[in-house]
Amino acid sequence: MSSTAVELSERRLGQFGDKYFAGRPQQVLLRNWISFKSSAWIAVVSGFLEPVLYLLSFGYGVGALVGNISTTTGQVSYAAFIAPGLLASSAMNGALLDSTWNVFFKLNESRLYNAMLATSLGPLDVALGEIAWALMRGGAYATAFTIIMSALGLITTWWGILAIPAAIIVAFGFASFGMAITSYMKSHHQMNFFYIFLLPMFLFSGAFYPLTVFPGWGQAIIKALPLRQGIELVTRAMAGEFSVHLLVNVTYFLVMICVGLFFTTKRLNALFMK
Amino acid sequence: MTKSLIHARGLTKTYGDFVAVDGIDFDVAKGESFGFLGPNGAGKSTTMRIIGATSVRTSGTLTILGKDPEVNGPQIRAHLGVVPQQDNLDVELTVSENIFIYGRYFGLSSSFINKKIPELLEFAQLEEKKDTKVQALSGGMKRRLTIARSLVSEPDILMLDEPTTGLDPQARHILWDRLFRLKEQGVTLLITTHYMDEAEQLCDRLIVMDKGKIMAENSPAQLIKDYSTKEVLEVRFGSDKNHEMVEILRPLAERIEVLPDRILLYAEDGEHLLEQIAAKGIHPNTSLVRRSSLEDVFLRLTGRSLVE
Amino acid sequence: MSTINIRKVSRFGTLHVAEARIRNMAKWAGIIFFAAVINPTLYLVSIGIGVGSLIDANKGVDGVSYLTFLAPALLASAAIQGSSDEVIFPTMAGFKWERTFFGMRSTPITARQISLGLFIAAMVRTSVSVVIYWIALYYFGALESSTAWLAMPAALFAGAAMAAVMLALAGKIEKEDFFFTIVGRFIMIPMFLFSGTFYPLSQMPIFLQFFGWLSPLWHATEIGRYLTYDYPVSGPALFMHFFVLSAMIFIGLTASFRIFAARLEK
What we know:
heterotrimer
C-alpha cells in the first residue's frame, strides 16, 4: 500500500526548512525531463551547436588571418586561444536561457510554478530543481564541447578534462543569479533590458582577443564582470594553473551561487505567499 | 471542539491600505458543498488562497482539518485539490503526463499514480486525448483536466475558483455533472463563483460576499426566501421611458429595482402583477415573469448586479 | 451611402497595411533606434578593432584594414537581421498571437496586400537602420572609396531578399514551438558565421563554400566590398550576385502571396 500525500507531507514535519522545502527537487527535474523527451530536445540539442560553429568559423577562418597568439604560457593557435572563452560563454548562455526565459514563462505565462506550489512542494524544491536542470544542461554542453575540442587537437594535457567541472561552476553561478533576477522581472521589456547587457559582455570579455588591446581602466571593468571571471576560470583550470587567481575566480562564482539561491527562494516565497 | 473541516473567525487580509478580506467568519462541514458568491473583487479568490495555504492572512484565526496554514502549509496542501481561476496546466506535456507529474509533486509513487490515471481520465472524459498535448485541448477539456489532475492526490477538500467562467453552456453542464459526482462521493467542495445559477446548482450552503465582507449566509433556497419574493416580473419600456414609469409602478410591487435596460418588479405572483399593470392601461414593450434567483438576492443586498 | 471608397482601398491597401505596421513600430522607436546604433558599435569596436588589431598586426586581409574588410559584411548582416525580425514577428502575431490579419481580411484589403505591406514596412525600418549603421561605419573610418555610399543599397538588397524568404516561411508556420530556435540556430547564426563575413569565403573548404553561395549575406557582402574598396569582382560574378538576390525576392514574395492567400482566403 502506497503512502498518501498527507502521510508523505507529515513525515517532513520538524525537519530542515519544512515550510519551504519538501525534499523533492528531483520531481521538478523529472518534469523537465518528460518535457525534454517529448519535444524540447530540438532547442536543447541545437543550443550545443552555437559555440561549435563559432569555434569552427572564428578558430579556423579568422585564425588563418590572425596566426598564433602569445599568452603567458607561450604561443597557441587562435582556435586554442578562443576555445575556453567559447566554452565559458556557452555555459553562461545555456544556463541563462534555462534560468531566465524559461523561468519567466513558467512564472508568469504558463503559471507552472503556481501549480507546483499548490501541491505540497515548497519554493526551495522549485528553485533547486530548476537550477539543477540548468546545470545538467550546462554540464552536457560542456562535455560535448570538450570532446570536440579534444577531437580538434586543442587540448594538449589531461588538465583539459577540468574544463567540464569549471564550466559547470560557471553555469551554476549564472543559473542561480539569472533565476534570482528573473523572479523580480515583471514584463518582457524588463527581460529584454537584461539581455541588452549580455551582448557587450560577450563581445568585450576577451573571448576573441587578449584583453591587452584595451586601456587599463577598461580591463579593470571587464575583469569585474562575471563572464570574464568565467573565462579565466575555464582557461586556468584547463591549463592546470592552480594559483590564487583561480581561487579568486572560484570564490567569485560561489558568492554568485549563494546570493542567487538566497534571493530566488526569498522572492518565490514572497510571490506565492502574498 | 468544533467538528467543522474549515473554521474561520475574523479572517482578514490587507494589501497595504486595501482590505481584501474584512474579518469574515465561516465554518465548512465535512462532505459539504460550500460556495462563495460575489462579484469580481469581492475577496473570494483571496479567501481561497488563504485556505489553500498559498497566502498568509493578516489577522484572525483559521484552521483546516485542525491545522493552521501558517504553520503547516505543506501538510494542509497535501489534503487539498486546487483548481485555480486560470488554468495552469503544464502546456509542454500531454494530458496523462500532466496528471502523472502532478502526483509526483506530492511525492506519490509512480505505481500508485499510474493506477489512478485511467480512472481520472475516464472521470474527465479525456481517455481519447490521453496522449494529446494540453495546448490542443478545448477550454472545457482543459478545465476537466485541471480538476482530474487535482484529484490525483485523493484530496479531502476540492477548491474550485470560478470553475466554469469562460466555458460555453454545454461545457458548463458537463462540468457541473462531474462535480456533482464528486459531491456524491463525499468530497468536500469549496467553490467561488459569480454565476448565481452555478451556486444554485452546486452549493448546499453559501456565503454572499461583497467588498471583503459577508452579506448573508445560508442555503440558496433559503437565501432567496429571505431576501426576495417568489417571482420577478421584468418589464422594458425602451431606454428613454423606463425612468418615468418607475414612479407609476412602484406602489404595485413589493419592491422595485431599476436596471439600465429594464425594471424588475418583485411579487409573489408575477402574472397577477402584469395583469394589474395592464389594467392601468400600461403596456410594456416586453415583459417576462421568472422565479427569483440569487442574482436578485445579491441585488437586494448590495444594490448592484453580480455581473456588470 | 457608403463612406468607404472601395476602389481607393483596393488600390492603396498595401500602403494601409504598411502604415499600420510603421505606426506600430513607432511605439518601439526608442528601442529600435537604440539597437540600430548600439549593436553595430559593439561589433565594430569588439571584433573590428579587437580582432582587427590581431589581424592587422599579422598579415592583414585584402590589403586593407580589417575594419574596412568587415564593414560591408556587418552592414548587410544588420540589414538581414532587422528585416527578418520585422517580417517574422508581425506574421506570427497576425496569424496567431493577435490574429490581426483576420481583422484586416474582413475589410476590403486582400491577403496579397497584407503580405506586401508587411514587406514594405520591414524595408522602411531596415533602411533607417542601414543609414544609421553606415554613418557609424563612416565615423569609425571603415569606408574608403567615393562609391562607399552604395554599400547602403547593397545591404538593403540583402535585407529584402531575406525578408521575402522569411515572410513566406513564417506564413507557413502554424505552430511556432521551435520555429524561433530553428531560425536562429540553423539559419541566422550559421549564415552570419559562414558567409565570408569575417574572412574571405575562399578560405573555407570547398564544401562549406557551397553554403555561402546560398546565403544572401555573402552575395551582398561581395557587392558591398566591391563598392567600398578596391575589391576585385568580375562582371559575370557581379551579375550573378544581383541575379541570386533578385531571384530570392521574386520567389519569396510570390510564395508568400500564395501562402497568405491560402490561410486568409480559404
